[in-house]
Automatic annotation (TrEMBL):
PROSITE patterns: SAM_OMT_I. Keywords: Methyltransferase, S-adenosyl-L-methionine, Transferase. Its EC number is 2.1.1.-. This is O-methyltransferase.
Amino acid sequence: MPSMNPELLASWGYSQNQLLERDHVLAARERAADLGVGCIDPAGRSMLTLLCTLRAPHSIVEIGSGVGVASMAMLEAMGATGTLTAIESDLEHANAMRQGLRDAGILSARVRIINERAENVLSRLADHAYDLVLIDASAENLLDYVAEAKRLVGAGGVIILNNAFDEHRLARPAVRRASTVATRDALRLLREDPQLQTHLFPSEQGLFVATVIAGQKAR
Ligand SMILES: C[S@@+](CC[C@H](N)C(=O)[O-])C[C@H]1O[C@@H](n2cnc3c(N)ncnc32)[C@H](O)[C@@H]1O
């Protein structure tokens, strides 16, 4: 295991500093700061863009879309006919996301924002109907979200969990806080599923990515 020596830290910082974001993304980040809500970090956003470019999903679900920083990245990268189902319980966040989508010139017909708690919505979404599920809501119901995400994606589908470091508590074994335990359990559930290929990317918040191996269904 590499130790976090100063050179490694400098290289990591260098890679983070390569990330430039366009004006509509920076404006969305400002709206998020005004509302006191988090958004995916620049490295996570960049990785999400890359994954959507590579995978070219047609249909995405985002659990916890906030002001839409990750949503816009995915919509911009997935191609003009792709659609996003964004589940967001806070109306102010959902309205700020609508503003961001207008700024980015994304057609509203491509996005369905469901302003409800995810736990009341996910069971209504069809099995294997989505190519990618991004989970970025509070960790309280994380295990349920992971189970639903496995049901929603088909073969070749992708499940992504942002804030996988649980604000840097994950790697501290003594931390037994509910969100940390739920995150550890969720990552283990995905990592130990033989139908999934997984990787934890060391973005600022930690971006855990799992893909259903071709010809298989996630359990
Ligand atoms: C970290 S923010 C999401 C950031 C967003 N993915 C982005 O990159 O801009 C988490 C969001 O999840 C929402 N949220 C929290 N619990 C939720 C739930 N049970 N159902 C739906 N949304 C929830 C919060 O209101 C908040 O807007």
